[in-house]
Amino acid sequence: MTVQGPTRGIELLRAGVALLVALSVTVPGTVSASERGPGDYPIVDTGQVLCYDDTDEIPPPSEGSPYHGQDAQYEGNQPSYVDNGDGTVTDLVTGLMWQQDHGVTYTFDEAVANAPSFELAGYDDWRLPTIKELYSLIDFSGIDPSGWSGNDPSELTPFIDTDFFGFEYGDPEARRIIDAQYWSSTEYDGTTIAGAETAFGVNFADGRIKGYPSEPIGPPGQQFEKESYVRHVRGNMSYGINSFVDNADGTITDTATGLTWMQDDSGVGYDWEDALEYAEGLSYAGHSDWRLPNAKELQSIVDYTRGPQSTGTASLDPLFSVTPITDEGGGTNYPFYWSSTTHANWQSPSGGWGAYVSFGEALGFMPPSGELMDVHGAGAQRSDPKSGDPTNWPEGHGPQGDVIRIYNYVRCVRDSGASGVDGESHSSASFRSSPNPFSDRTELSFVLPESGGNAVCVIYSPSGRTVRTLEEPPDDSGTVRFEWDGRSDSGRRVAAGVYFARLMTPASTERTRLVMLR
């Protein structure tokens, strides 16, 4: 649901506390990374609502049919924004507040240097977003305009919600239409084109993550320094921080996102249709509700502090197993992994490409020499044809000759469901709040099991900071009701935004998400 109206956003922990959280150090009023509950890193849905086969849009496939299980058939945390009317936008899913306009272009060094002094809407704690924060805004209802030669960009659909965020395509007379990249603060743990230091960015024109040289490249006298847009962010310092737990059954749960992953990958590559079939047909670790992850879910587990060039491993936490591959140059590398998300194109066939995430080097045959190199960095999100013969692409695809593999690997995912790794429920249909979203007050209710007993409800922020603790006995029907008026334990009215409620009873623990407006 999209909500409009004024809000002050969410006042969350600042950088010093975030560092302690990242290091799993507990300070008063916070929780360590290993103790953070589900909801600290909610993955915003991709926004893709159309289904595709290997070429074009199709009706939603039924269960057991080819192409069943793709992105549009699974509904995650739907994007929900508030235009605050002061040049900022609050994301009600992530708890992040964003600069609304499209910003201006900077070199990477300028973007890093300018962020601490940026002020907007009375706030001075803005920062350059991480790649995971920035990617939370991508919207796969967008259409890739690569190769478009028209004159009116209003005919195009970018990969960001322009009802809330300012956006401009590249000027086709001065540069490419797709030159609408945004810097993140995440630097690549390696080098790319011409051995350059590299930082990741999101291209909201063509719907990709790539690493871009963050220093001048080229011969003396002809050097080029990349400039990209900047969209500053503030709030939820825990966003993008994983909290993995090895379940000792071949699965890994990220308690920050509430997703459970296969510890091993598929071991072999599949084209896109077969990847969907593999995931949908999988029965593993006592569960049969596995699926192919969407692009944003898959990107959420990238470890951008690791990379093949520096660690000799995939960009993934060592808890996971990764099948090594022999890359196009004969070297040892690591796979691209399919997502369930179609990377739609303005040309026909519109649905012929699928989004993947590279957990090894994002290689390309760099023109004009065709030299094979890491052009976009491990952790890039690019796209491949969903079917066909990769040998038909000897020079790769696109301006940097991106290698085409088609037969990409699979790492399946499922929602953690009712039983989390700590024995707690991640969400419960029986633990309800009404109204939600709310402006003044909300009532949370739960029917206690026959064992009875009192119940405690803890309201906490996305960073894990306890806001309010409520305790009530059940009524005659066994229902316990809590009323929260948006105040903290100290009696102060808290800022609008996303909060979570944890209900603790003698028999179970439940969680639910709250959205408070102003």
Average pLDDT works out at 86
In percent terms, what proportion of residues is strand?
Answer: 25-35%
Distance between the termini: 16 Å
* E-strand count: 29
Overall geometry: globular
Secondary structure category: mainly beta
Describe the structure.
This protein has 518 residues and is mainly beta. Among the domains are: 244-415; 432-516, Sandwich (Immunoglobulin-like), CATH 2.60.40. The protein is built from six helices and 29 strands. The protein has a four-stranded antiparallel β-sheet with strand order 3-4-5-11, with no helix packed on it. It has a four-stranded antiparallel β-sheet with strand order 12-13-14-22, with no helix packed on it. The longest helix has 9 residues, at 272-280. The radius of gyration is 23 Å and the shape is globular. The protein starts with 14 loop residues before the first helix and ends with a strand. Residues 1-38 and 417-428 have low confidence and may be disordered.
Brief sketch in words of this structure:
The chain is mostly beta strands. It is built from 6 helices and 29 strands. Strand 1 and strand 2 (57-58) form a beta hairpin.
Which key phrases capture this entry?
Immunoglobulin-like; single chain; 518 residues; 4-stranded antiparallel beta sheet; mainly beta; disordered N terminus
